[in-house]
Amino acid sequence: MTIFARATRQLALLAPIALLSVHPVLAQEIVVPVSTPAPAPAPTALQTGDEVPWIYRGSDVPRDEEWLFGEMENGLRYAVRRNGVPPDQASIRVRIDAGSLHEAENERGYAHLLEHLLFRESKYLGTSEAIPTWQRLGATFGSDTNAETSPTHTVYKLDLPNIDPAKLEESMKLLSGMVREPVLSDATVGAEVPIILAEMRERGGAAQRSADASRATLFAGQRLATRNPIGTVETLQAATGRSVNAFHRRWYRPENTVIVAVGDLDPMLLAAQIEAKFGDWQVRGEPSAAPDFGDPLAPPGTDPANPVGETVTIVEPDLPRSLTYAVLRPWRPVQDTIAYNQGLLRDSLAQALINRRLESRARAGGSYLYAQVRQDDISRSTDATFVSFAPLSEDWETALTDVRAVIADALATPPTDEEIDREIAEFEQVFESSVAERSVMAGGRLADDIVQAVDIREAVAAPETVLSVFRGMKDAITPQQILDHTRALFSGPVIRAAYVTPAAGEADADRLRAALSAPVEPDGSARLSAATIAFDELPPIGEPGDVVQAGPIGVLDVERVDFANGVKALLWDNDAEPGRVSVKVRFGGGYRAIDPAQATYARLGEMALISSGVGELGEEELDRISTGRKMGFDFSIDEGAFTFFAQTRAEDLADQLYLFAAKLEMPRWDESPVLRAQAAARLAYESFATSPAGVLNRDLEALLRDGDARFATPDLAALAASDPAGFRAFWEPLLAQGPIEVLIFGDFQRDEAVAALARTFGALEPREELPAEIAARVPSFPADEDTTIRYHRGDANQAAAVIAWPSGGGVAGLRESRQLEILVQLFNNRLFDAMRERAGASYAPVVRSEWPSDIAGGGRISALAQLQPEDVPIFFQEAERIADELATTAPDGDELARVTEPLRQSISRASSGNLFWLYQLEGSTVDPRRIALLRSLLTDYSRTTPEAMTQLAQKYFGGRDGWRLAVIPEDTQLAGEIRPSNAPAIMQGR
């Protein structure tokens, strides 16, 4: 059964966004006409009464009664369900049981190519009409409208907002035309292949080469070894309308199709529309049998007691070291019974025990950065147990021995009862939370659960069933059972391995095979202590603080509570999301407070500040004290504040607040997490030069801020100069200064939360004021008129280009920033059409607007694309052309509707969750203007005029050249209008 299947029915929020007072409308809403359909006949293929639904055949897993299943005479199967999360949405999935493993040798890449072609042209949609049509219906391309191709299936995904019977009927009709009757001609194939090749190019490089080589070794002798869904250049360029049509006829058949529809509609209506649009689907000929995917087999003469087979060493100078070995077993279909799932749960417990020990070993300063064990059924090809880790140095053999020694101990000796109890508590908390949160599980997630279950040939279960099965078995779990399951996980006919290293000569296949075959002594030192820690044993933060003011803020039922020490809190207790409480703490000055000369410690802090400890609790103790609890501790740095964040529940809220407050009042400064963060940063830095995307990840944020060191990626020299003492000296004063704002939104008791706040944040010592000079630390926009050049060491056909314009920042301009998002989406659609649809030069160009609200400036509009080096000038020309056109010519109503309707629907759907309101209101205790601006949110994002867009474009684009960045291969000269200001320089800091 699919362990995390969810059953849902949403409780509406107390005041959805539509009920907020709305500012005057700036333009008439554009309504896309959809004709009222004739009622579809009642569904006749539903499996009701005593009939066993198709997904439960051969299974004794109790049915999830919220799902309805049907199987039509033509063999098509479907599943439907009512769900109102988010409200007024329908999520539709069409799964075809054919992926890259179903391709013939000369068809490699056809399953993925066909996925693209269905969106290009079909029975009811003309050339390139699919994306704009879905946009007019309110769906955003890429998030609401998408598809995926895997080795075993192709899935078409649609999340349609503002659903009604007419939109449902229209969408089912369009989907049926796409799936059943795509236009597969030489012209459509010829237009789409360059886009696939652009996608292939963007995915290429060292990481893809190492993944391909690893796949070829780990799955040697199986189709999976050579069947990357993207295909090959040769087979794609040889594709014709006729050859792709043959693949479509062979696999796109009703008996190979499952349709899932989950939505805020009567499920009988969902079923009726599926039957109406797909019930008459008939195809010629008998169905083709799926090819034999093959089994993992040991080489002839392999010793069953030491089944190490194929190994490979992959040398990629710009990739960090990583080693994966796999114990492989043949995959076979199973009877998805309760007993089978109990076995899977024991397998999961065994893996969790080993992973906790491996992590403990790494934290203690071992020979590897991380290590993990994971069992997985891969593409119906193999049941495998993977062991993956990253050596900290060229001494990979010691790291391999250390990892294998921890596993050897788990294979030799049963775990203790205390260890098992700890993992059981963790599992039970997850299953309990899934039950508590079942009413707020999104429909798209539910639909995806069915698709996943069909792919692995298993059933689905309600969360109550999963919890019941687990509780029914947990008391009978014994150390010997876990030992037996551990041994089974590491038994198989063949073991294979792949080692990625930057250094030639460091290893070879024979040496790797010998290291895997060598005997190893079990290492029990990583077994964890069973000592328990309770929150009531920890010292108090201080004397509980007094509430000096409390009252509503005037929006929704949000309340502001101020404490005598200056801490301010926003609370909204509601039952819209049962079992969920979101907590966010904003404190200090964020990036404003960071000294540029010490910015290395900011980056290390994102990785190590929390794990360096709290009061009496180190990293291990933090894990132990939160066992069986729903708690989190995320840390991030924003423009104007540092933040802690967690998703918790009412019974854990007080202790969650204690941990957050204790980190500010009594921070701990363990050295190991800092040293580990340094090692991780070094390994990451060495890989950035391997591709244009890596260089952008390393350099872009600082470049867009005129080289501001606070946003730069620390280079190797800066990392070498840092140390734990400097880390503490940097962070200790920052944790003690600046205002504190706590936001608690969700399902909790107000009075209990206020009391917990008084004992924690209200008990903090008064804070130091932020230094006055930090207000001036607003990032500058680069003034370079020439194109900035950066170089990468990846493939010669890879490049990236960025063009950007300055915008603004601050609360005063928030309404304009929302209108700017409409303009940016207009820009995005035009750039997508120019670079992907017409030129085929880039797979996924993107335009984005960033407007920091905490500081009065620092914003920018940027367009980015990955492409071939020779297409970089074309990108700059097209982006400048579009910017000029937007500043001089107003968009028409239809183009505007394709942007505003998806934005309106996106906001309406997001507003059904507490996190949406939390993000909108954070910072409002410092700047109350945010509260008033909330009332115009929906209007600002979804209502405008063509003239307003032109004026905005004139303000930000008119008469101004964009700042340009090109990332190109070393030793490459660009043609076209590019005047590099630093072309001779090879990348700094490599």
UniProtKB/TrEMBL annotation:
Pfam families, A to Z: Peptidase_M16, Peptidase_M16_C
Keyword set, alphabetical order: Hydrolase, Metalloprotease, Protease, Signal, Zinc
Signal peptide: 1-27
Domain Peptidase M16 C-terminal: 243-425, 728-899
Gene3D superfamilies: Metalloenzyme, LuxS/M16 peptidase-like (3.30.830.10)
Domain Peptidase M16 N-terminal: 86-203
Family: Belongs to the peptidase M16 family.
The protein, known as: Insulinase family protein
Native source species: Qipengyuania benthica
